[in-house]
Amino acid sequence: MRIAVLLTAISTAIASCPTTLDLSVEIDDGTMLYYAIVPPYLCGRLEVEHEDGEGWIGLGFSGSGTMDGGWAIVGIPAEATVLKYDLFHDIATAMDTTKQTLTGTSITSSGDGLVVMEFVTLMEEDGEVPILVGENPVLFSYGGAEFGMHTHDAHPTITLETRSTEAVATDDTVATDDVENETYAPTSVAVENDDVEMEEMEVEVDEEEEEGEDGATIGMVETLLSSDGMFETQLSPDLLLRYRINVPDTTTQEICDGCTITMETVYDGEAWVGIAFSNNGQMVGSEAVIGIPDGQKVPPRKYHQYSYALSDVVPMDTAAQTLTDATVTIDDVGRTIMKFTKLMKEAGEIEISMVGEMGFLWAVGSSIELGYHQSRSPFAISLSTGLAQEIKVPNMTAWLVHGILAFVAWGVLIPFAIDSSLFRSMLPKKQGSSGSSSSKLWFNLHRTLNTTAFALFIALFSIAVAVTAKEGGDHFFNSHEKVGLIMFIITTLQVVSGIFRPRLPPPESVDEVKTTARKGWEGGHRLLGVGLLACGFWQMQDGIELYVMKYSISEENESKVVIAYWAWIGLMTATIILGLFVSTKHKGAANQQNRKEQPIDETEEVNG
Questions:
Q1: Where does a domain end: 175, 195, 230?
Q2: 271 and 339 in contact (C-beta within 8 Å)?
Q3: For the chain, what is the domain count?
Q4: Could you tell me if 366 and 485 lie in one domain?
Q5: Among 101, 109, 332, 508, which residue has the least CB neighbours within 10 Å?
Q6: In what order do the strands lie in the sheet with 357-365?
């Protein structure tokens, strides 16, 4: 699937590369790189005045300026190949086929010493040094007809730009413009038609997904560049995100001290909106900027998100409220627009990084007052390349199985087990040796159903503990987890007490009665059973709400599940109430029958 996604994306990149590469950077004397950045791709043409005439040429990228850990694009005219190579010490080795993601490649020599290599490469790939908008230490070399030791090399630092200005190489750092801040947003080729405000950079069909870490799936998100230089991505059909990076002239994009990010969300509706920053794509532990257009004229603020509970989404201390230009408004057409500028590095907070993919979450409420969101989703942006990806929260199947097992155990088996006891008088009986009626059918049903339910409870409890650990969450942190732990302990005690319960008098016994211990156990057993069942009903409803919040289930689908759930629970509750009525009536009739059949002097005869 990853290869399919990559091939689809790369074919898009070829179509997006401009015919003319207007930007250029001098790599070395007689060597120029002409390029265009079409996030997440670099379209390049390397022209080399080759001293050896028609030998190989190579352009490498290294975070350290040395071959160790770097990679290179090498063109060999004699073999008509342009491939990616891993670099280690003084050795260059062609990468595996699965990593040969270059496209639009060609290598030609004019015969007069000019060798030209063309390529389109992803600016960032797993396990490779990224190509940045800004400064990049590069490795340039060329050699003879057969690929081997170079006859010439250079290790300059080049600056790749998104603007149509010439970039030059320097030995150390590149001088910045005489402006207070540089603004950076990944860009596409220039739009020549003045009537066009945006240009599509990449489109990925929804069906194309690849598997990410911990089972998460990743889908490409359409990326656009607006005419005002803001990078844009449509997070949902009714929510647009716009952003740009502001780099002070006292730093670089790699170091980015004092860098800020300006963000703007445009929601087609009237509701609170939020953008959160996360290390793992999860809401719990993330930090959010939330705008609440409730008429109080309070600007967007920064929030801690300690759990899924609304009470645990709390504003940061006043000293931490460092947002600037923060506003949230509802415009004339009913759109909620939130804007703010935030420092990318702040003490004690999640850093917004230009390196690799940065995890974000978005959420939209159902009203202008802060409450539970009606929709949400995590996503990732590579701020250095502009690649945006929608990330589906992992472990969805595991938590679904957890919920299904809980419903079968506490919504089906336990109510049926209770019913088997309450309706025992209506089950088939057999005659005892002394002529009394007895039935083990209800007891066997009661025991089997409870045992099966307890086994399922162990399984669903184990799933919850294992998945929580996998997600890096705190165990037994929220009310759902705490109640689940208490239920598990009490249920275990209930099962153990059932195994070692005080015994009943033999069915044939006429003069023996239940012991006090037996009567106490029966009362406690029933009381705990009713309490556990009530907690189970509450836990399942709470679990549905947590699942809906975690995986952004639509309100429509949530309503369908909740209605079906409570319809079933209502039915189970009705059968238990009916069973109580039948059991009470049967016991009353049995007691009256016993009094009629008992001889007047039976007590005297027994005691005598």
A1: 175
A2: no
A3: 3
A4: no
A5: 332
A6: 209-211, 217-220, 388-392, 373-382, 357-365, 273-278, 287-291, 301-305, 313-315
Place of tokens 């010490």: 89
Residue 13 DSSP class: H
CA distances from 42 to 45, 118, 186, 550 (A): 10, 11, 11, 36
Give the domain extent around 518: 396-607
Say yes or no: 438 and 574 in one domain.
Answer: yes
Examine the domain organization and report whether 403 and 379 are in the same domain: no
CA dihedral 77, 79, 83, 89 (to 10 degrees): -90
- Considering the domain architecture, whether residues 120 and 228 belong to the same structural domain is answered as no
Distances (CA, A) of 217 to 1, 25, 220, 358, 389: 11, 38, 10, 16, 10
What is this structure's pTM?
A: 0.55
**What size, in residues, is the chain?**
608
Q: What is the pLDDT of residues 205-262, one digit of tens each?
A: 334 444 444 444 445 555 566 667 788 888 888 999 999 989 898 887 778 889 999 9
Averages of pLDDT over runs of 10 residues in the chain (608 residues) are 41 62 90 90 91 86 85 92 88 88 88 88 89 90 88 89 49 37 42 36 40 48 66 89 90 84 96 93 89 90 89 93 96 96 95 86 92 84 72 85 97 96 85 55 93 97 93 82 96 95 78 86 94 97 89 84 97 96 82 59 38
Cα 224 to Cα 62, 186, 196: the distances in Å are 29, 9, 12
End-to-end CA distance of the chain: 88
- Residue 277, classified by CB atoms within 10 Å of its CB into exposed (0-12), middle (13-18) or buried (19+), is buried
CB of 78 within 8 A of CB of 160? no
The residues near 80 (Cβ < 8 Å, ≥ 6 apart) are 107
> Under a CB-based contact definition with an 8 Å cutoff, are residues 460 and 406 in contact?
yes
Instruction: Give the pLDDT confidence of 542-581 residue by residue, as tens digits.
Output: 999 889 877 878 778 899 999 999 999 999 999 999 999 9
Residues 6+ apart with CB under 8 A from 416: 445, 449
- Is 572 in contact with 411 (CB distance < 8 Å)? yes
Q: Name the maximum alpha-carbon separation found in the chain.
A: 131
List the CATH number of the domain containing 218: 2.60.40.1210
